[in-house]
Amino acid sequence: MMKKSFLISLFICSFISFEAWSAKSRPVYRKSFLSQRKQPLIRVRVRKRLKNVFVSGMDLKRKIHVNKSSKLFKGKKAIRFNCRGFGKKNRGKLKSPVLLASLKSQTGLLSLGKEKYQGEILVVANHSKPACDVINQIPIESYISSLLSKEMNSKWSLEALKAQAVAARTYALHKMKSNQVSRGEGHEVHYDLESSEKHQVGGSFFDATRKTELASRSTQGEVLLGPDKHLKPIFFHASCGGKTLKPDQVWENHVDGYESVDCRYCLTSPKRKWDKKIVYRRLVSFIKWAGRKGLLRKQLVFTAGEKIRIAPDRPDNNVLRFYVGEELHLIEKSDFRRYFGRVLFPSNYFYVKFNGRKGLRVRGNGNGHGVGLCQVGAYDLARKGKTYKEILSHYFPNHKIKKMY
Ligand SMILES: [Zn+2]
């Protein structure tokens, strides 16, 4: 392995310099968790692209990975990392993000801004920008119990929270086991998933409640396995509007085991219905965009003044038929949401009515992408006395629950 030496400077209360280190080295904490009885640690990116990172806590133990040094700070301590300085000195020299430091408190929690975290805080320097990412490395069950307040509602019935816990745990463990984020970036990013709507919105220490902790603890280690008995990405959304969708109906990825299932349970939600208009000019722009992106099954030939007509539609149709001149085209309904966004298209469950030159009227139900667990549906099923296992088997009829640790 080629070793690259470079000078790294950090501002940690005062400037400290370090020599030489291989960017390819990797911490040793990521053994195969599936063979462990203990719950694994998950690495969640909680902040990104910070110029400075401030971490404080009692009896902080700071480990600098680049020169393998450790230091214990007795009493209350705040530590600042100047990521701008690090970036300036090393710009162009790094091929992948660098794990600079990890911090833990011997006596309790770590503060990062206004939030408090359990576990460890990792500071990772970005290789292409003068900035750092901050990662919380935490036992997965603590992560799940905080997440339930963010991704669901901590006041909902316990069985709904338990169903959500299993779904979110499976999603997280799949990301972790498959190293999906690092593989996607082409280098080690030092985290398994980010806390955001793109992945899952995690919480901090005070987001966990007795009820969310109970939901996590009473399903500890349980995940949903696909028909091939492997971990698969498990998705969830706020409310499907009447029918869930399969991943390939919304995104490009096919995931084995998913089915589109009927769900009348979220229809009681007061916010379920939505009604929007799209003017003809924007409809034309959308269709041209879909043609450019290769989303239509036939090549789009669109000459100036060519008329567009939309064929009659129903909510259950996943595909919309339309004519450009005399040519029939098909487009996935989920492409509307990709183009117009989540505000105009709160869900993928809708039907359109074509009003000629006035454009489209769009009426829909639900909120979210519609794939997998319908959270409002889970809430309603739990209120009706269903267990989390029954809820999960409704939305994931081909999956089985397995306790991993
Ligand atoms: Zn639903």
Task: Kindly describe this structure.
The protein has 405 residues and is of the alpha+beta class. Among the domains are: 1-30 and 52-130, no CATH class; 273-365, no CATH class. It has helices at 83-90, 140-151, 158-177, 180-185, 210-217, 247-250, 280-292, 334-344, 375-383, 388-395; strands spanning 8-12, 14-18, 41-50, 52-64, 69-82, 98-105, 110-112, 115-117, 120-125, 132-139, 193-194, 222-225, 236-237, 273-278, 308-310, 319-324, 327-332, 349-354, 360-365, 373-374, 400-403. The longest helix is centred in the middle third of the chain and has 20 residues, at 158-177. The two termini are 36 Å apart. Residues 239-240, 263, 265-266, 374, 377 line the site of zinc ion (ZN).
Please tag this protein with its features.
30% strand, 9-stranded mixed beta sheet, 10 helices, binds zinc ion, 405 residues, alpha+beta, 3-stranded antiparallel beta sheet
Helices, by number, come to 10
Low-pLDDT regions: 1-35
Q: Give a short account of the largest sheet.
A: 9 strands, mixed
| Oligomer state of the chains in this structure | single chain
Strand content: 25-35%
Considering DSSP H and I runs of 4 or more, what fraction of the residues is helical? Answer: 10-25%
**Which overall shape is indicated by the principal axes computed on the Cα atoms?**
globular
Q: For the CA atoms, what is the radius of gyration?
A: 24 Å
Mean pLDDT: 88
Q: Would you tell me the structural class of the helices and strands?
A: alpha+beta
Bound heterogens, unique: zinc ion
What is the tally of beta strands? Answer: 21
Tell me the distance between the termini: 36 Å
